[in-house]
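B., you asked whether I could sanity-check this one before it goes into the benchmark set. Here's the sequence:
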Amino acid sequence: MKLGVLKEQAFKRVAIVPETIPKFQALGLDVMIESGAGQSAMHSDDSYSEQGASVASRQQVLEQADILLSIAPLSDEELKGLRKEIILLSQFEPYNDSKVTAKLQDLGLRAFSFDMIPRTTLAQSMDILSSMASIAGYKAVLEAAQYLPRYFPMLITAAGSIRPATVLVLGAGVAGLQSIATARRLGAMVEAFDTRAAAKEEVKSLGGKFIEVEGAKDDTSAGGYAVAQSEDFLRRQREEVQKRAMKADIIITTAQVRGRKAPTLVPASTVEKMKPGSVIVDLAASTGGNCELSQNNKVITHNKVTIIGNSFLADNMPQDASLLYSNNVLNFVKTWVKNGELNLDMDNEIIASALFTAKKDEVSS
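And here's what the prediction gave me:
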């Protein structure tokens, strides 16, 4: 079987790095990669060839691959040109696009969506969302530091003392926790808020102060995602966030509700009360933004506050992001490729959840 890897049209990352090629080959897969696919992630075509992959044109990969791998889904035009029964691996986000499942089924294509892999301990090594979120959380702090017109750590100098910066992290999932850890390493004072009860101890273990607002809905069955909250809770949450935001030098927002618009945690009225020179980094910008004023993929200034809207900060670290992505893909493929053959066990929760185009009784290997 041939695993085809495509060059991303909108990202710097590549789905497979050269060092993992032999591991895919050990599963019985021949690897084809589109020429130039790894260039932005610092991997030349020669580096893939040296590991045993064949480098080909995009059209050759589309025509010859049995399994087709990309970070972003293919265009409708390219999908229509694929032969039936090819297996697609990508991030289709079927919970955001109600038509994608039927569209692929009508074309006779089978598709795994990485964002449908259960976020459980068993699937942790395959969790692309967590891997990319961790990088984004780290990078968010560095982006904020670049725009902040002052130091992060406390400094005592002959010319006077500098107080530490205050960082407020809204959403203590993977990205938020990495933001907390990074900001603490840089010497900032960190506060964090999350509706999930389990986040409190994690925040405290990293040296952050956890902000509690009573009355959050139970989230134990949400699979690691935030859940929609009552209007009364959201009102009290906004009041508490506004009080903290007025004192913060940096706000990093990461809160998303799967399949829905991101909750507004920082309204325009809060931004207008923040200190001049403050910075907001909104990692939920692609789903509407946690800051009311965020613009996706743009850096704007409002009332002397810099607002960075970017949900794909992991793409600004393409080398390490590609390595982690590649390892996640490898660990996932291992669950359903054995000795070069498909083994689509629909009793396996990971396979059944990710293979969103087929019902259990429709799948055959």
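One thing to flag: The domain at 2-126+318-362 is CATH 3.40.50.720 (Rossmann fold). Otherwise nothing jumped out at me.
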